[in-house]
Design goal:
The chain has 213 residues and is α+β, with helices and mostly antiparallel strands. It is 18% helix and 25% strand. The protein is built from 3 helices and 11 strands, in the order αββββαββαβββββ. Strands 1, 2, 5, 6, 7 and 9 form a 6-stranded antiparallel β-sheet that branches. The longest helix is centred in the first third of the chain and has 31 residues. The N and C termini lie far apart (102 Å).
Length: 213
């Protein structure tokens, strides 16, 4: 009988040990199954900047969005060219509303009459006055094509690349605040061939604009 009691007590002891172990394992498992979570986030909306220019051939009276394929027609004085004739016309450029500022660079002209082009010379300067005429072509002017002097001596062939392209100094202000003014001078050579009488030529200049950023 005593042995039976001892066996019974042994079974109870083992059962309590197993139950205790199970309780420990159960508590441990419940602690690893749950966790608190949280996060933080931020966002930003970005908008691309704008850069666009427009031009005027009447000293800022009217502005048009022109291009090399749809150019404005310069307002040179009426009348045909004769040997030694000199004509002047303004060309202004400014940015559009909300546009960035930038720089401007004159490109070489294109024409539809190479023979006629060889008998024409041009000069171009940046000016700030009210009138585009011979007075704009001073020794201290900023020349984009040609140099200070006389049209016949200091002009360059109308299809030639600009003498200088000071893109770093020819600027255009942001947001339509101020126009950049150019004055073009075109002259016919004194020795132009009489064969040119009655002929015509179309010359197209492009002022290329680049944003500052």
């Amino acid at each position: 009988m005593r042995h039976a009691n001892q066996r019974t007590r042994g079974r109870f002891s083992r059962a309590r040990a197993v139950l205790a172990g199970g309780l420990v394992l159960g508590v441990g498992g419940s602690l690893t199954m749950a966790a608190w979570a949280d996060s933080e986030a931020g966002q930003a909306t970005f908008t691309a900047s704008r850069f666009a220019t427009e031009s005027s051939i009447n000293s800022g009276t009217a502005w048009v969005d022109s291009s090399a394929t749809a150019p404005l027609t310069f307002a040179f004085p009426a009348g045909g060219l004769s040997p030694s004739t000199v004509k002047y016309a303004p060309f202004w450029v400014r940015t559009k509303a909300l546009s960035l500022d930038g720089t401007l660079a004159l490109q070489a002209a294109t024409t539809n009459n190479a023979t006629f082009a060889n008998s024409l010379k041009y000069r171009a300067v940046r000016y700030t006055g009210a009138t585009c005429d011979a007075s704009a072509f001073t020794a201290g002017a900023t020349y984009l094509a040609g140099t200070s002097g006389t049209p016949a001596t200091n002009g360059i062939v109308v299809t030639a690349a600009p003498t200088t392209t000071p893109a770093s100094t020819i600027t255009v202000a942001a947001n339509q605040t101020q126009a950049t003014q150019f004055c073009f001078e075109v002259s016919m050579n004194a020795d132009a061939s009489t064969d040119l009488q009655g002929q015509s030529i179309t010359v197209t200049w492009e002022v290329r604009a680049t944003s500052s950023s």
